[in-house]
Write a structure and sequence with these properties.
771 residues, alpha+beta, 20 helices, 18% strand, 6-stranded antiparallel β-sheet
Length: 771
Amino acid sequence: MSGALLHSAHDYRLVTLSVALAMFAAYTALDLAGRVTAARDWTRVLWLAGGSISMGLGIWAMHYIGMLAFSLPVPVLYHYPTVIVSLLAAIAASAVALFTVSRVRMGVAQQVIGSLIMGGGIAAMHYIGMAAMRVPAMMEYNWLRVALSIVLAVVISFVALILSFQARDEKGTSWRKAFSALGMGSAIPLMHYTGMWAVSFHASNVAPDATNAVGISELGAAAIGVVTFAVMGGAIVTSMLDRLLAAQRAVTVTAQESELYFHTLAEAVPEIIWTTDPAGVPDFFNSCWYRYTGLTFEQSKGADWKGVLHPDDLPACVEKWERSIATGEPYQIEYRFRHADGSYRWFLGRANAIRDEKGKVIKWFGTCTDIEDQKHNQQILEDQIRDRTEELADANTRLQEEMWEKDEARRRLDEQNAGILRELTERSTRATMLAKMGELLQSCVSKDEVYAAALGFGPRIFPTSRGALALLNPERKVAEVNGSWLDCALPLTVFEANSCWALRTGHPHLVVAGDTTAPCAHAAGIKSTYLCIPILAQGEALGILHFQATEEVPVLADAELSLKTTFAGQVGLSVANIRLREALRNQSIKDPLTGLYNRRYLTEMLEREIRRAVRAEQSLGVLMLDLDHFKKFNDTYGHEAGDTVLRETASFLTKSIRVEDVVCRFGGEEFVIILPTADLNAAHARAERIRSKLRELTVLHQGQSLGMITVSVGVATLPQHGTSPKDLLEAADAALYRAKREGRDRVVDATPRPAPAPEATSPEIALSAAK
């Protein structure tokens, strides 16, 4: 009935034939890829054209055998012009594939473009072939399956290009090429049968156009298969023959080039070169042989070459040559050859056996080197040796006499070298100790530590010299000896700076024993040699390093001057650093106007003394003093007078306290005195004494008395008025303000706190609250 679905079937014999054709076509493609790559110029074009035709024919035959394996319950004809177009599409796709894989390099872009064109050509071949079918039915395509078949064609082409590119350089049949052909041959029919799966046939009452259409029988299918196999087989055989011919041509060219290279090299060497067969029969001589002997090649091949040898040298030469031929050992001998003019010259003959891979001798290669000049020089040398022998015999006696002198000199030199080595070892050890001392000095935090380190390392670094260390006082007028080693004695332990020439000049000053030219006054009475080295730091003299010679070593070596100067420099740098740290420390904790400790130091000291008093269960007194009517001094006499009052008051307070007490300037005209171990009664008594004594202080400014100075004092003690810096300062401050309100010039004790503070606060918070 019109429109009914036609059921199809497959002839699996033809299906198998189509798969076999695909595998054979894949192998053909792999084999031809190598020939197209190896070919050049017009031969490459011919191989590309022939390979494209044979490969395209194989793919096309696989397609049509596969279509003939597909049978319908209606007659099927094929429009042969369309069939020819599908064949051309397969050939074009094959040409693109072979051209792509024959490139020197195949990148990803070339692979993608080539696979798209090749896959598109294969898909076009298939669907053009489908269009060539003439059946009384309508074909309906499933476009998803059509798209799948096209994608398969492109993917199969991509893989085929990669496999062909990898296998193109392999010679002959290999496992990789065979497995690649099997894989490609199995994948190509997959695309074809996917395309066939994408179409369904529906019966139609309209007769197909049979113009230029023919039917193909099983015999025709077999013929297509046989012809295709024959064409691809011929292509493979042609490829194999071409490969064999190319290999033979390469071997021939290589042999010709090797022979030409050997002849060129033999003629370029300025020696006689010859070769023989394994039996010792000569088969080659270079032109040097012919020019020297005057023989022809035919004469040289026979026994005439022996006539060139000197008669005295012939037996030994022939015997040794025959032994080398028999054993294969290298041949070497000296003999005389007759020149073409009849004269003889000495030659050195050498020959080595050339063997094959089995070790069999296949040729002898020999050279003859002219050594006439060497022989002549050797004879002259022998004559000279004979003449010299007598002279040497006469000189031998003199040499023996000189030998003991040289041995003695060598012994003395060895002793000197041993002494130098000991000295170098000793200097190295001392330099190491100097470096260690430098590291230790860098870690010192006080001058006493610097003195101890310097005086400890001094005798180890300078064991043969006495030494002493003297440093200038802060005013840089007087030097004081801080220590010495090895019983170094100076007449004066304290002396003026200008009594040392090293401090005057800033350079080392050496005074040799008995020299009265420029002795140092501080070393008067010293009889031995001594050396003073200034201790410098940043261009400033800090003291001297004094060295004295001993009775065992009465001189001071000049070689040690650099070491001693370095020693003094390290000591000076350490002392300068400590002085700088002390100056910075004083600047950070001292009030610049009064010289008293400042508020920062008060914070540290008060907290430390409170902890100490709490641990020892002792009292601690705190006095807060404020100058009465201080503003009057500034308003009446000026701020300079006020500064004078502050300085004189600070000096008075410093003299009025114990060593363990601490006085600080709290701010403005306020002062704080910390009295360790003082209870309330003792602190009050101390405050009263300070107040009464201060009234007696007379302060002069520009020759004018500034009048009587009075002070109001607030007293607080630990633990009655608190156990923290904040509590004590607040209590003392409150007592101070009570003294101010009650008429000034008096001492007022703080009121006991009703309860202790729950916890101590930091000194910074306490000072801020007290302010």
